[in-house]
Amino acid sequence: MASSPPPSATPAPAGPPAPPPSLAGLFLGMQQVALSSFGGGLSAWSQRIVVENRRWMSNEEFITGLTVARLFPGPNQINMAVYIGARFHGLAGALAALAGMLLLPFSVLLLIGLAYFYLHLVMAVDRVLAGVVAAAAGMALSMGFKILGEYRRDPLALLLAAASFLAMDVFHVRLIPLVLVLGPIAMALYWPRSPRPPAPAAGPEP
Question: Is the pLDDT of residue 82 over 80?
């Protein structure tokens, strides 16, 4: 008889989705994202807070929103905050999420910028900032692996991702031409198609 896997090897089931957030909840949630991601890694922190902690969206819904946010001009996570807020409360939600993303972090950034202006020549400050940047790179990489986990059984998605990577990293294709070319191709490949009706069964010959 095959032994059952130990409890640690069995993935924990995902919790049920939480009720839609209020305007105050959107503000505080986006503020938590912004204040958690010093040095970068906004997408990784946003996924962790919105999907894993607060359970406002599923991972697939989050990735869809992140894709939409990256197709529009401007900072990705600002677009993502607007997307999340508008999804739940329309224009008011978008403004609440945007305020949470920008208001307090902008104030903190002004204070940090003022402090850095006077302390940037101190060696310890430069070393601390280098460590923060390295941590941000690790968080961005973890976000990439989470997205990969969603599509690892989809060869077509992996092919499109590899084509995008080669175009940008090897051939140095700019983002806008790449989106204009690969975007319609991907939409055409994944466009839902109605199933073909079954062929009528051949009746007995007269």
Answer: yes
As separate numbers, helices (DSSP H) first and strands (DSSP E) second, the chain gives 7, 0
Is the separation of the CB atoms in 40 and 136 below 8 Å?
Answer: yes
29 Cβ partners below 8 Å, 6+ apart? 21, 49, 50, 54, 56, 97, 100
Of 165, 175, 172, 166, give the one whose Cα is nearest residue 144: 165
Alpha-carbon span 20 to 25, nearest angstrom: 9
- Inter-residue contact 81 to 87 (CB < 8 Å): no
User: Hunting for tokens 């924990």 — which residue is that?
Assistant: 12
- pLDDT tens-digit map of 104-132: 878 887 887 777 777 665 656 666 666 66
Between CA 104 and CA 156 the distance in angstroms is 42
Cα–Cα distance between 92 and 98 in angstroms, integer? 10
pLDDT in tens, 134-186: 776 776 777 677 777 777 788 888 898 889 989 988 999 988 888 889 888 98
Does the global pTM surpass 0.70?
no
**Is residue 90 left, alpha or beta, with left meaning phi > 0 and alpha meaning psi from -120 to 50?**
left
Residue type at 140 in one-letter notation: A
